[in-house]
Amino acid sequence: MNDDINNKELIAKHVFFFEQVEERVLPLNTFLFEVDGFKVYLKKGEVFSKDKEEHLLNKGQKYLFILKDELRDYNFGVEKKLTKTLSNDNIPVEKRTEILRNASISMVEEVFNSMDVLKNRERINNLTENMVSFLTSNNSVLFNLLSLSSHDFYTYRHSVDVSIYNVMFAKFIGITNKKQLNIYAQAGLFHDLGKSKVSDKIINKKGPLDDDEWKIMKAHPKYSADILKEIYGLHQNIIDAALYHHEKIDGTGYPFGLSGDKIPFIGKLTAISDIFSALTTHRSYSKARTIYEALNFMTENLKGKVDKQLLKKFIQMFQNENENR
Ligand SMILES: [Fe+2]
Ligand SMILES: [Fe+2]
Fold first, then answer.
1. Whole-prediction pTM value?
2. Which of 22, 49, 126, 214 falls 20 to 30 Å from 260 in CA-CA distance?
3. Where along the chain do the CATH 1.10.3210.10 domains lie?
């Protein structure tokens, strides 16, 4: 056991928030990172007292760590009480946003790796329902989201962020039906699912892609749709978001080169969330833009590329929220 604990590779980078420890009995073995390495802090079933928490906080420690092997159990635990956690007003909204985002990232990572949306259907629904409830009752999430720094793999985090922007955006333009918002959430989560079929070498390449690589990359909307089409009962909008989020109003997009109104609404909306997420996230080849820089960039560079009215609304959404802060 001690060897395991000293092996940092085995320690999940996922964090364990104090607030999530229900009745202060630890559901898993937890570890505390100290300068001289990892050491066992508390065992499963032990009580994590308020005193211990304060001691840790005083030392600047915000997290408990868990073993990677136990990550799945941990994620299930977090998801199971997500409804309760997200509606707990004692936890600051920023923290709840982070919990929601981390839970979503873990789930998306698992779905991308197993490619088994069907098996995870119930979990996905549970998670996006929680997401929609949380997002429709908290307005300050947008800015919180942008202040979160996370070191998870780009595609998983990006998928979750597009999902959140989709819900906020749909809500802003007047969609209030929770079932419908749920569709926008799942559309965001899985729009890039097909990237799991593109090799890491292409996905993470620092320089520009060559013609062959670009051809494969451009197939990811179709790959996504192929996987999603297999799922019985999945709403067509979720498939359409995957298929059409890289189409452009002037017909210069891919995979079909559709133009104007031939592009389904959910494709046009997801395209804007997608671009905004990419611009505001640090990538290996470009640094993250601020909200203001990203919106400016979009206004200047996306003329004729994305739906004009929708882009205007998207910008308004941030202005509105800024005024309400
Ligand atoms: Fe994409
Ligand atoms: Fe994307």
1. 0.84
2. 214
3. 84-324
